[in-house]
UniProtKB/TrEMBL annotation, chains A, B:
This is TetR/AcrR family transcriptional regulator. One of its GO terms (molecular function) is DNA binding. The keyword Transcription regulation applies. It comes from Streptomyces cyaneochromogenes. Residues 5-65 form the HTH tetR-type domain.
Length: 192, 192
DNA sequence: TGCATTTACCTAAAGCATTTAGGCAAATGC
DNA sequence: GCATTTGCCTAAATGCTTTAGGTAAATGCA
């Protein structure tokens, strides 16, 4: 019985690739075992169960995404940083749709708190250094940006903006313009 | 053999309730059959398959949500309409988390085009009548609002904003203030 | 090198969800 | 009151998940 050389690491990476190919929801232990030409039960020495596998793929995607974002914002500030940062999310969605879907998966609070998710929030806050926001407005803005990036990627990948003018590319640019303008001129109080 | 009185309609409604109780992802034909105290195979006279059931729950949720939104914006305009409209989404998420998750499920393009999803887009556009936006800016703004509502609900339900100050309620209010300000002052061109 | 231990993958089996085929009894229509 | 339709059934195949226990390959140490 030849050994294939399974490991948690290899399973997670292969799982991420599989997600990009067939969709994150479709990633199963069975399919993954098939890819490695191995019996399903063999995976259970490396991952606790199917849920554990998916969680690890999510954590992997969050890390990868955070690394890319960190690269993108290094040496940039203001709108330049905002655009570079935002484009990381959008590009990741296009390049790795399965991993991006994984990155949107709900994690239990403890796992989430120990994930690269916190790096994402920190980087978003760093972007805001280029704008003059003080607490608690900075936090509100972090949450707004997170919502927009998350929501836009999700809707766009669901095909929400395709087959209608103007094209999604154009909208994305204009949304970033709008967010930049908003951050430079964040309203201080409710204006009914 | 007593007849329970299954129908597609009843299955979908019960499926929606089940989703709110145990989560949309956890809704299965088996669990639904259990609720009706009926054998699983019996469901297959009323829905094509498990995917069909989920799709119908999604369509149902989209309709219900669109009806609520229509009620909310009737007789309102400007920021008043924007806030009422946005709150429908947020309240629905809290009141019916499973249905809200269903409403976020990816539909195939043909099904989506025939769904209440188009009403949502139309209503969002109607909201913008209170602001002075011309095409293509109105479309960009529709997409931005969709992204924010979608993204915020998704992140909030995933617990993204809990256990940290300021509370989510406060952020939501301030985000709506910000969106209102942005729509009243939508940037016309790129401002580097 | 030779043997013991650990490790990696295996077979077997049970549990549960999905789906189809075919049957019987209850409801419906004439 | 009988024929037809309809609703729910049983039975069975398929596939994914998970655990238990076995065997052979790799590793380590004398």
């Amino acid at each position: 019985m030849a050994r294939v050389g399974l490991s948690t690491e290899r399973l997670v990476r292969a799982g991420a690739e599989l997600a990009d190919e067939i969709g994150f929801e479709q990633v199963t232990a069975s399919e993954l075992a098939r890819r490695f030409d191995v019996k399903v039960a063999s995976l259970y020495s490396h991952v606790k169960n199917s849920q554990d596998l998916k969680t690890r793929i999510t954590l992997f995607a969050l890390e990868e995404l955070a690394d890319r974002a960190a690269d993108a914002i290094a040496g940039r500030a203001g709108k330049d940083a905002l655009v570079a940062f935002a484009n990381v999310y959008r590009d990741y969605e296009r390049e790795h749709p399965g991993r991006a879907a994984a990155a949107r998966m709900r994690l239990d609070p403890r796992t989430a708190a120990a994930s690269a998710g916190v790096r994402h929030a920190q980087m978003t806050r760093a972007i805001l250094r280029g704008y003059e926001l003080t607490e608690p407005d900075a936090t509100h803005a972090v949450r707004l940006l997170g919502s927009v990036f998350h929501g836009y990627a999700s809707l766009e990948s669901a095909g929400g903006f395709s087959h209608s003018a103007p094209d999604s590319e154009e909208t994305w640019t204009r949304i970033l313009d709008a967010l930049d303008a908003l951050l430079r001129n964040w309203p201080t109080a409710s204006t009914p």
